[in-house]
Design goal:
The complex is a heterodimer. By secondary structure, chain A is mainly beta. Chain A has a single domain (4-114), classed as Sandwich (Immunoglobulin-like). Chain A has strands spanning 4-7, 10-13, 19-25, 31-37, 44-50, 53-56, 64-67, 73-78, 87-94, 105-106, 110-114. Chain B is mostly beta strands. Chain B has one domain (5-110): Sandwich (Immunoglobulin-like). Chain B contains no helices and 11 strands. In chain B, the strands form 2 sheets. In chain B, strands 2, 4, 5, 9, 10 and 11 form a 6-stranded mixed sheet that branches. A 5-stranded antiparallel sheet of chain B has the order 1-3-8-7-6, with no helix packed on it. In chain B, strand 6 and strand 7 form a beta hairpin. Chain B is globular, with a radius of gyration of 13 Å. Classes of the chains: A mainly beta, B mainly beta. Chain A binds chain B through residues 4, 6, 33, 40-45, 48, 50, 57, 90-92, 97-98, 100-109, 111, and chain B through 30-31, 33, 35, 40-45, 48, 50, 88, 90, 92, 95-96, 98-99, 101-104, 106.
């Protein structure tokens, strides 16, 4: 089945120790998104890639970076995790971004714990 | 900034009851999507509504998009414990604007 896969499902890191989260998709979608979701809150968009074009949200801290080496994979790098970065990180994909039926398909998420 | 307000924030009901959750905004959206998210998982898309006044049904779930495309509702008939989860609405503006998510309604259906 076509899907969005995130690894690992659970990640524990230490304060200030860089961490990378991984997302892959078999849907061949053009757009890949990274969201941060804290407990009882809505997902917050960090950035997205439209093909190779990177689009950062204005309020995303510089501590968060992303890479998309090819259509299938996208990575979220947190350079110096703080306690406030503990959250669920969701990857999503969509075929396009400029149409009403911009349906996004989410992965299962990676829950990040910062000690 | 486009905002989506969802109500109620929490809802706990008995199996077999009916319920409605709401998603409201002062902004117009070109489309609106409803997702269900279970604990520890990503949101799963339930439906997309595009046309003002549109009604879509998915088994016991009925989704409606307001005539002015500023609000939406989700009605569940004869709720079951399997309906338990966080229900998120997400609206899409014009052009390349990203989806705007509401904070969600956390539904608990007790057997």
């Amino acid at each position: 089945d076509a899907m969005v896969i995130q690894n690992p499902r659970y990640q524990v890191t230490q304060f200030g120790k860089p961490v990378t989260l991984s997302c892959s998709q078999t849907l061949n979608h053009n757009v890949m998104y990274w969201y941060q979701q804290k407990s009882s809150q809505a997902p917050k968009l960090l950035f997205h890639y439209y093909d190779k074009d990177f689009n950062n949200e204005a309020d995303t801290p510089d501590n968060f970076q992303s890479r998309r080496p090819n259509t299938s994979f996208c990575f979220l790098d947190i350079r110096s995790p703080g306690l406030g970065d503990a959250a669920m990180y969701l990857c999503a994909t969509s075929r396009n971004r400029d149409r009403a039926y911009n349906e996004q398909f989410f992965g299962p998420g990676t829950r990040l714990t910062v000690l | 900034t486009q905002l989506l307000e969802q109500s109620p924030q929490f809802l706990s009901i008995q199996e077999g009851e009916n319920l409605t959750v709401y998603c409201n905004s002062s902004s117009v959206f070109s489309s609106l999507q409803w997702y269900r998210q279970e604990p520890g998982e990503g949101p799963v898309l339930l439906v997309t509504v595009v046309t003002g006044g549109e009604v879509k049904k998915l088994k016991r779930l009925t989704f409606q998009f307001g005539d002015a495309r500023k609000d939406s509702s989700l009605h569940i008939t004869a709720a079951q414990p399997g309906d338990t989860g966080l229900y998120l609405c997400a609206g899409r503006g014009s052009g390349n604007t990203p989806l705007v998510f509401g904070k969600g309604t956390r539904l608990s259906v007790i057997a």
